[in-house]
Please model this.
Amino acid sequence: MVFKAEESGHEVTAIFNGVSLDSLNNYSFLKEISLKLLKESGFNILESSEHVFQPQGYTFMVLLSESHFALHTYPEYNSIYFHLYTCRKRDTEKIFSTLKEIFNPKEVVLRKEVVRVKF
Amino acid sequence: MVFKAEESGHEVTAIFNGVSLDSLNNYSFLKEISLKLLKESGFNILESSEHVFQPQGYTFMVLLSESHFALHTYPEYNSIYFHLYTCRKRDTEKIFSTLKEIFNPKEVVLRKEVVRVKF
Model:
């Protein structure tokens, strides 16, 4: 049987503003907590890649069976950008509410989009 | 001098619907043309990863100095999803207009968002 994707994908973009530099610059924690939350929400991790920028900044990307996840830190603005795209229904609410509890941002700008992939 | 990101990031999501299976399933071409267009628009490629799904489907992700790029094919719907996020001003128009010329989709759904990363 050929796998058939759902007719709509789900995209979540979140900006966490006003995050403390201590938690924002803890790259290994950012990576581990992202992988943990993705797994707990039923995502299947295929591969991940990361880059530590000099003198500051971090990018982490995850290739999922269900599409992809990415985060970028902005230490100069105390901000983190998160992006998650999934072609299968998953509990993305839990991921972002838990990240919010952990990183305690002063402001969260969250945008969700339903992406229709069937013509 | 510490690099200071621009205060706004730019996100482009494009769905190409009605793409022929021949071009959609040509993974090496999808990869090469994406890298070529990103480079031509001034993006700096740091790392890329890809996954060929069984029995069908392809994901390609690129970690950029300027953030990230991702694509996912939906052969079951003749569609390709593209996502590009850049923390620095780049000519993203050219990338998507050229992709459109090449893949000749019956429909394009393009969404652009300005993402404010400064609190």
